[in-house]
Amino acid sequence: MSITTLTSREFNQHVSGAKLAAKHGPVFITDRGRPAHVLLSIEDYRKMAEAEMTIMDALSQEDVPDFEFDPPRMTDFPREIDIS
Q1: How confident is the model over 20-73, as pLDDT tens digits?
Q2: What per-residue confidence (pLDDT) applies to 65?
Q3: Residue 24: DSSP 8-state
Q4: Per-residue pLDDT band at 78 (split at 50, 70, 90)
Q5: Which helix (H) or strand (E) holds 59?
Q6: Which of 62, 57, 52 is nearest to 1 (CA)?
Q7: How many CB atoms lie within 10 A of CB 41?
Q8: Strand bridging mode 4-7 / 27-31
Q9: How deeply is 30 buried, as exposed, middle or buried, from its count of CB atoms within 10 A (0-12, 13-18, 19+)?
């Protein structure tokens, strides 16, 4: 799978090329240097839409860079309330 990146201007000038590139992988379309849209083939879209990813699947992906995860610590525990 190859990933293609085009500016909005390039996409507008080469729509047919972008469609051909989408057959081989996602095409990221940037707006002012930032990713704004993704063009996918209908087959890739259907696979993605039908797939249910588990947390284990998400964590075991090889092509995703590692990231820091520091969840907030719970310091204020709820007090018990006597309702009797």
Answers
A1: 999 999 999 999 999 999 999 999 988 888 877 777 777 777 776 666 767 777
A2: 67
A3: S
A4: low
A5: helix 55-59
A6: 62
A7: 16
A8: parallel
A9: middle
- In this predicted structure, the answer to whether residue 83 has a pLDDT above a threshold of 80 is no
Burial of 25 by CB count in 10 Å (0-12 exposed, 13-18 middle, 19+ buried)? Answer: middle
Residues across the chain: 84
2 Cβ contact partners less than 8 Å away, ≥ 6 residues apart: 21, 24, 25
Closest among 36, 41, 45, 42 to 10, alpha carbons compared:
36
Structure tokens given for 2: 């190859």
Pick from 40, 33, 32: nearest CA to 4: 40
Q: 66: which 2 tokens?
A: 């590692």
Tokens 């993704």 sit on residue: 38
Of 13, 45, 12, 5, nearest to 29 by C-alpha is 5
